[in-house]
Every structure is written in structure tokens, then in C-alpha cells.
């Protein structure tokens, strides 16, 4: 029988429902048909939905976690480890004396992954874990640690952002490249549609599951069917006529621009408003992550991912970047505060800001770029200033409180001492007063630097998450199933920020390890989510501290404060001292190996302190200032 005859019989059998589609008919039409359950691959694919115990570790990767490039070889164990796993496995006992040999060559790219620069910072310095001869993080001998000496940054008088009247130079140009454009009223309509779609979608519940015997082909089929269902619902809700046509011809490529636009709106809105889309953004990113797989893109014939529309991209498209170099932009985008100012002063600032916006929008209006679009760009930069005030400024206020109420090297009494010891009060680190002071200062400084560059970090995180060349694997990390994926661009940026913070404070105490793409921080999405929560920790504390003098003006509350705490000043010092001690004591991890002074462990300790606030004797003071929780509105 000829090949054509055989193909004709196979097609006829499929149409009659008597045969299942095969790999030869692995098409979008068959995937969306009623026979999708019968599509099967010729062999199982390893590493998709469960871990395979007999799979050998790729050469050049850590023998323990199997995700990170190996940094050193234990000459006694004869195994290669990354720095984090070596520290965890060799922290005490006979293993503590094992000798190591560094690995000089770069590990090969895994699964097409880009070369990961996690182990080096911007200046090419090797990442240190508490110095060359120091103990691993969380060690009982923490009091013997030496601080890593870093050359202080030269004092240049550099400010975080230009003040009104200053020459702006290239500051706004560099920053506007990562500032998303504020959504218009028409775009918000599609945003509500996207949020509603994601809210009812069960995409991750169906895709990110352990399926024994589930092949790679079956997983792709499930991904494409769920993705197409979401896209069909979106289009039908937005335009009923086009949606009907899509259900008839299944031509998703025709509406590629619509899908890219809607998905981009959700991503852009989330970056500008980190407290929004808290349950739907992760689902959106994972949907887009799967849509970037070569198999899915080939099936749909287009990519669902488009570039984020930023202030810079809009102005550059219309040759209006000089707007960002105009010194008047500081007036047009400044935040106007009402605290401690008269109504007349506030109104004066409002009028000057409105005049500056009108002048700039009139001056830079041109074909294709209306005055309203220019205003939208200026408003977006103003939104960025508001983000910095709410997220970065609490770090500055806490640094000010630290320097105001505590001496860097001396402690007059127990309230003034920041010393902690492992095993006491839940602490897993041991620091004397001066070391803990420096440790808190450098942690707050690092958080401030991260939040100052958060939009840039977010942009790089999405590039890593949605990269076609960096695959992920589903893995039980101890906190449920997570997508473990490397994040080379985000990691390089984080090491650059860490290096900047180290030069700023002059010394570095503890570990410089940045978890990324391992069981602690599986991917860049969870990394970003951790650091967008910093203001939720610090802002309620700052608000409570700032309202204590006002509370003390009420006779009844003043009497309670004096009898219970001695004075308002002592109350303030007790709250701050407790946070600076036990919010940075290495506690909060699920096990001892994951606890300590690593970059992410500092934030874990702070969250652990928040969870125990209601047990503190000063908790009533928080309630009196209007505190409702670290996840509430302030």
C-alpha cells in the first residue's frame, strides 16, 4: 500500500473517531479537539513533573542542589559544591576541617541557560561567605566572625534624586527606561477584564502538579489547551464578534497584537502597583512563561510576550527624550506634602507644579505625541516618586532612628544594647553591640538600595522569567511545588547593588550569599515578591514611632507610658531596640542550615519578628496608633 493511501486511511479513521491522533498529527487543531487525551509521545520525558533519582548530575554543577554551578571541590569528599551547599554540609563536626579547592572555570549552560554570573559581582570579585576563613552562616561560633573589609566609596555628595532647581543631567533619562507608563482609562477596561479572567482561571492548579506517568507531550497539550481557553475568553469578552470568529477558525495568530497588549497591561500595572494583583500576577507570569516554550510558540505561531511600555520608550519613539533633560521636570514631577505646612504653602506648590506640567506638555507636543501623552509621562514619573517615598523612605527613616537612639560602639545600659546571643530569645546569631549595630545598618542600607532600583530589578526579573533560553523544572522545595529557574540577569544586578551597599557602609558582616534559583528562592518572581514586602514591615513601625509623642500629650496615656515604660523616649528606644535585635537575629527559617546572615535570611528574620509582635509588651502602643496588621492599610 502506498504512503498516500495509508495517510488517507489514518485521516479517515481519525474523523470517524476510531483512532487516536499520533505525533504525526500533533497540531493545534488536534490538541483542541475531543481526542486530545489520546495524543501521546513515544517515550517519557524526564525532569518535567517529578524528580528522577537516578539522573546523573550535570558536569560543573553542585552535587547537592544540582541547580547551581559548582564553586569549589571538597578534596576530602571528592565532590563539587556551590558555596551555599558547602557551607550547609560542612558547618560543624569533622566536615568542618575539610579542605577545598576553588573551581576556576565557568560551569556550562544548563538546558540552554545563559551563563550565570551569580558567583561574581559587578567588579568581578568572587562572592564571599563571611570571609575566606569564617564559619558558615548560622554557626554557633558566630561571635568569632570577622567583618569583610570593603573599600569605602568615595564621598561624592551624590543624592538619590535631583531636588527642585538642581540640574537633572541624565538622571531622569536613565531612570525613565524602567518606569512603566501609567494606564489610560481605556486600558484600565482591559485590565479589569484580564484580572477577572485570571481570578477564575485554574491554570497553575492544573499545570503545576505532580503527575506520575505524565509525559512531556501530555503536559504541553494541557498547557496549550489552558492557554487557548484563557485567550479565547479574553477576546470573546472584549469583542463578541471577533470571539465568535476565533471559536470557528481557531486562528489565534490573527489577534496576536490584542493578546500582547492585554498581557502587557497586567505586567505594567503590577510593576507600578506592587500591592495590586497579589494573587493573579504570579498566575499571569507562569502562563506567559509557558507560552514562551518553543513547542507552544510554534503551535500558536506568535509570542504572547511584548515589551513593557515605559516612559523612555514612548518619548524615544517620538524623538522627545530631551523632556527628561529639562530642569523644569523636577517641579513637574515632585511630590507635594501637607504635613507641617500651611494650606497656602501647599496651594502654591500645586499651582507651580501645574504650570510646569502645562509648559512641558506644550513645549514637547509633536506629531504622534499629544499633550495628554506628555502629561501621562510626567504623571508616571511622579508615580515613581510616590513608590520611592512609600517603599524606600522607610528604610532611610529606620537608619535615622538607629543613628539617633543608639551609639555605634557603646551601650550605656541593657535598653541601649543591641547585643544578641545564639539560643536566647530565638536568635541564631551571636553579635556584640557594635557588630549588631553595623549588621543592622548594612542590612537597612542594602534594602534601601534594592528598593531604589526596584523597577530596574523587576524589568530584569521578567526578562529572566520569560526568557526562551532559561527553562525551569517543577520541584518540591519544602514549601510546596515551585518552578525552579535560574535568573542570571537579576543575579548580576543584585550583586552590583550588594557591591554598592558594601562600599557605602565600609564593612560587611555576615554572609554575602544571594539565593537565586534554589530551594530558598526558586525563581526571580519569588525574589521580587520578597523585597516588595519590605515597606509592609518598616512602615507600621515608623508610623508607630512617629505617633508616640502625640499619644503622650493625652494625660491618661502619658500616665500609662510613664508607669509602664518610664518615658516616651524609653518606650521608643525599647521598640526600636527590640526590632534591631530580634528583627536581625538570623531566626525564622525552617531549619538551621537556611537560617543566618545571608542576604535573604535578613528579611526572613524581620518577618519572623513581625509574626511575634502581639506577644510583645508594647503591642498595645501599636494598637493605640491605629495599627491593624503588617498586611493592612496605614
Question: What distinguishing features does this structure have?
Answer:
single chain, 634 residues, mainly alpha, 3-stranded antiparallel β-sheet, two-stranded antiparallel ribbon, 7 strands, globular
Task: Describe the structure in your own words.
The chain contains 25 helices and seven strands. 48% of the residues lie in helices and 3% in strands. By secondary structure, the chain is mostly helical. It starts with a helix and ends in a 10-residue tail after the last helix. The chain has a three-stranded antiparallel sheet with strand order 2-1-3. A two-stranded antiparallel sheet has the order 4-7. A two-stranded antiparallel sheet has the order 5-6. The protein has helices at 3-15, 28-31, 83-89, 171-176, 185-200, 203-207, 216-238, 240-249, 256-272, 281-291, 294-300, 311-317, 329-332, 343-363, 371-391, 393-405, 433-452, 454-465, 488-505, 524-531, 534-551, 555-565, 568-582, 599-611, 619-624; strands spanning 72-74, 79-81, 100-102, 148-149, 473-476, 481-484, 507-508.
- Gyration radius (Cα, Å) is 28 Å
End-to-end Cα distance: 78 Å
Q: What structural class results from the helix and strand content?
A: mainly alpha
For this structure, the quaternary state is single chain
The largest sheet has its strands arranged as 2-1-3
Task: Tell me the fraction of residues in β-strands, as a range.
Answer: under 5%
Helix content: 40-55%
Flag low-confidence runs: 1-24, 41-54, 106-158
Largest sheet: 3 strands, antiparallel
Q: What is the number of beta strands?
A: 7
Average pLDDT for all residues: 79
Shape: globular
**Tally of alpha and pi helices:** 25
Amino acid at each position: 500500500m502506498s504512503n498516500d493511501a495509508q495517510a488517507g486511511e489514518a485521516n479517515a479513521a481519525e474523523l470517524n473517531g476510531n483512532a487516536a491522533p499520533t505525533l504525526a498529527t500533533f497540531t493545534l487543531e488536534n490538541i483542541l479537539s475531543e481526542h486530545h487525551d489520546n495524543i501521546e509521545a513515544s517515550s517519557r520525558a524526564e525532569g518535567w513533573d517529578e524528580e528522577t533519582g537516578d539522573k546523573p548530575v550535570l558536569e560543573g554543577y553542585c552535587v547537592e542542589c544540582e541547580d547551581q554551578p559548582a564553586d569549589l571541590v571538597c578534596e576530602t569528599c571528592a565532590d563539587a559544591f556551590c558555596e551555599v551547599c558547602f557551607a550547609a554540609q560542612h558547618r560543624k563536626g569533622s566536615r568542618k576541617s575539610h579542605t577545598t579547592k576553588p573551581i576556576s572555570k565557568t560551569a556550562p549552560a544548563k538546558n540552554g541557560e545563559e551563563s550565570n554570573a551569580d558567583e561574581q559581582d559587578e567588579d568581578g570579585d568572587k562572592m564571599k561567605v563571611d570571609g575566606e576563613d569564617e564559619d558558615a552562616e548560622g554557626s554557633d561560633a558566630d561571635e568569632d566572625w570577622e567583618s569583610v573589609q570593603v573599600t569605602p566609596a568615595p564621598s561624592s555628595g551624590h543624592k538619590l534624586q535631583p531636588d527642585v532647581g538642581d540640574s537633572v543631567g541624565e538622571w531622569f533619562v536613565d531612570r525613565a527606561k524602567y518606569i512603566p507608563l501609567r494606564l489610560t482609562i481605556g486600558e484600565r477596561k482591559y485590565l479589569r477584564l484580564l484580572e477577572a479572567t485570571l481570578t477564575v482561571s485554574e491554570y497553575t492548579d492544573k499545570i503545576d502538579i505532580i503527575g506520575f506517568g505524565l509525559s512531556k507531550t501530555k503536559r504541553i497539550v494541557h498547557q496549550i489547551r489552558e492557554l487557548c481557553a484563557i485567550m479565547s475568553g479574553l477576546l470573546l469578552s472584549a469583542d463578541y464578534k471577533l470571539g465568535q470568529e476565533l471559536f470557528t477558525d481557531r486562528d489565534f495568530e490573527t489577534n496576536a497584537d490584542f493578546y500582547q497588549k492585554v498581557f502587557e497591561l497586567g505586567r505594567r500595572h503590577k510593576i507600578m502597583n506592587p500591592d495590586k494583583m497579589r494573587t493573579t500576577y504570579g498566575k499571569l507570569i507562569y502562563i506567559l512563561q509557558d507560552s514562551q516554550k518553543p513547542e507552544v510558540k510554534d503551535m500558536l505561531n506568535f509570542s504572547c510576550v511584548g515589551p513593557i511600555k515605559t516612559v523612555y520608550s514612548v518619548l524615544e519613539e517620538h524623538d522627545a527624550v530631551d523632556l527628561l533633560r529639562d530642569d523644569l521636570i523636577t517641579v513637574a514631577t515632585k511630590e507635594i506634602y501637607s504635613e507641617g505646612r500651611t494650606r497656602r504653602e501647599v496651594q502654591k506648590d500645586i499651582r507651580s507644579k501645574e504650570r510646569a506640567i502645562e509648559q512641558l506638555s506644550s513645549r514637547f507636543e509633536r506629531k504622534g505625541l499629544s499633550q495628554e501623552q506628555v502629561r501621562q509621562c510626567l504623571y508616571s514619573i511622579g508615580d515613581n516618586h510616590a513608590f520611592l517615598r512609600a517603599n524606600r523612605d522607610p528604610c532611610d527613616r529606620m537608619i535615622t532612628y538607629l543613628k539617633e537612639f543608639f551609639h555605634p560602639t557603646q551601650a550605656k545600659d541593657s535598653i541601649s544594647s543591641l547585643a544578641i546571643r545564639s539560643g536566647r530569645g530565638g536568635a541564631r546569631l551571636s553579635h556584640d553591640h557594635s557588630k549588631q549595630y553595623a549588621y543592622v545598618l548594612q542590612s537597612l542600607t542594602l534594602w534601601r538600595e534594592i528598593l531604589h532600583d526596584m523597577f530596574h530589578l523587576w524589568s530584569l526579573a521578567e526578562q529572566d522569567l520569560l526568557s526562551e533560553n532559561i527553562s525551569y523544572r517543577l520541584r518540591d522545595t519544602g514549601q510546596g511545588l515551585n518552578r525552579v529557574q535560574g535568573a542570571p540577569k537579576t543575579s548580576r544586578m543584585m550583586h552590583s547593588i550588594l557591591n554598592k551597599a558594601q562600599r557605602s557602609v565600609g564593612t560587611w558582616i555576615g554572609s554575602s550569599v544571594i539565593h537565586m534559583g534554589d530551594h530558598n528562592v526558586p525563581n526571580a518572581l519569588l525574589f521580587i515578591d520578597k523585597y516588595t514586602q519590605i515597606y509592609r514591615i518598616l512602615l507600621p513601625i515608623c508610623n508607630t514611632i512617629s505617633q508616640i509623642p502625640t499619644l503622650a500629650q493625652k494625660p491618661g496615656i502619658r500616665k500609662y507610658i510613664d508607669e509602664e515604660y518610664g518615658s516616651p523616649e524609653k518606650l521608643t528606644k525599647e521598640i526600636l531596640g527590640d526590632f534591631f535585635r530580634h528583627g536581625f537575629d538570623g531566626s525564622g527559617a525552617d531549619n538551621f542550615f537556611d537560617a543566618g546572615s545571608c542576604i535573604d535570611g535578613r528579611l526572613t528574620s524581620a518577618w519572623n519578628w513581625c509574626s511575634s509582635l502581639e506577644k510583645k509588651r508594647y503591642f498595645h502602643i501599636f494598637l493605640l496608633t491605629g495599627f491593624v496588621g503588617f498586611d493592612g492599610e496605614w
